UniProtKB/TrEMBL annotation:
Keywords: Acetylation, Hydrolase, Magnesium, Metal-binding. It is an enzyme of class 3 (hydrolase). One of its GO terms (cellular component) is cytoplasm. Its EC number is 3.6.1.1. PROSITE patterns: PPASE. One of its GO terms (molecular function) is inorganic diphosphate phosphatase activity. GO terms for biological process: phosphate-containing compound metabolic process. InterPro entries: Pyrophosphatase, Pyrophosphatase_sf. Homodimer. The keyword Metal-binding applies. Pfam families: Pyrophosphatase (PF00719). Belongs to the PPase family. This is inorganic diphosphatase.
Length: 319
């Protein structure tokens, strides 16, 4: 299965979004609609690349937004960028997440003693290729690091793209230690210090800062997949997360998102970009800027526009 992305809004702006489509051209959620496994028999997983190696913009799957596009994280109304903490430049791996996983904030992990961070499980892909934002790749899991971030469990899976020239030689975390000396130590150093320039304390780690092996990592991933299953089947309270999907839930499920609703969501992003580029007319009256081909009398579209507009204005009230 192949996937493509559609950009809405300008990079380095509050309205930047990457929406996902499957091979059939249907809008999908990268959180819910992309299968966790690419090949379950071989323990090969899909990974959604949020941040390419060497870049600094803190991009993430928007777990609370309809269709869960990739967007840039915002803190106190400002776009987030990770600092270059010497000797590192930006993210030192291709960074992203495994779809159909969720670190449950209501579950206290027996090993870390902390609850989950309410996100899909993170992946550091250590291959030689610099991936593209929004790229969906297939990876082989090698190990895992248990980071404790402000009292929350935040697992970091170490993996390699199955198409990487080194993939055949890397099968467990011990292979990384042997063939890529210093890389795992640099990874711990990066995660320990990357928030320090923002005035935050250093992050901590379970297991005396040590990585756990492939088998341990696979069990952690499977547990987060089970948490996701409970989330998408409404056995667990979603809180503010958007569980809407276009491929997984039955048509009568409140989690089912129709293609009309999906298309309207993407069109809203186009309109918001138009409206917020014209700061002199930030109110709903800017609907006069809408291209004539858009049928704005559709009540569902109208509702989505108002909801997202209020959300964006609350983040950037000066507009």
């Amino acid at each position: 299965m192949s996937y493509t992305v559609e950009q809405r809004g300008a990079p380095n702006s509050l309205d930047y979004r990457l929406f996902f489509k499957n091979a059939e051209g249907k809008y999908i959620s990268p959180f819910h609609d992309i299968p966790m496994y690419a090949d379950e028999s071989q323990n090969i997983f899909h990974m959604v690349v949020e941040v390419p190696r060497w870049t600094n913009a803190k991009m993430e799957i928007a777990t609370k937004d309809l269709l869960n596009p990739i967007k840039q994280d915002v803190k106190k109304g400002k776009l987030r960028f990770v600092a270059n903490v010497f000797p590192h430049k930006g993210y030192i791996w291709n960074y992203g997440a495994i779809p159909q996983t969720w670190e449950d904030p209501g579950h206290k992990d027996g090993d870390t003693g902390c609850c989950g961070d309410n996100d899909p499980i993170d992946v550091c892909e250590i291959g030689s290729k610099v991936c593209s934002r929004g790229e969906v790749i297939t990876v082989k899991v090698l190990g895992i690091l248990a980071m404790i971030d402000e009292g929350e469990t935040d697992w970091k899976v170490i993996a390699i793209n199955v198409e990487d020239p080194e993939a055949n030689d890397l099968n467990n975390i011990s292979d990384v230690q042997r063939l890529k000396p210093g890389y795992l130590e640099a990874t711990v150093d990066w995660f320990r210090k990357y928030k320090v320039p923002d005035g935050k304390p250093e992050n901590k780690f379970a297991f005396n800062d040590e990585f756990k092996d492939k088998d341990f990592a696979l069990e952690v991933i499977k547990s987060t997949h089970n948490f996701w299953k409970n989330l998408i089947s409404q056995k667990t309270d979603a809180g503010g997360l958007s569980c809407k999907n276009t491929c997984i839930s039955a048509g009568d499920s409140p989690c089912c998102c129709t293609q009309d609703e999906a298309k309207a969501t993407v069109e809203v992003s186009d309109l918001l970009f138009i409206c917020f580029c014209n700061k002199s007319t930030p109110e709903i009256s800017t609907l006069g800027l809408i291209p004539p081909g858009i049928l704005f009398h559709n009540l569902m579209f109208h509702s989505i526009f108002r909801h997202v507009l209020v959300e964006r204005k609350s983040v950037c009230p000066q507009q």
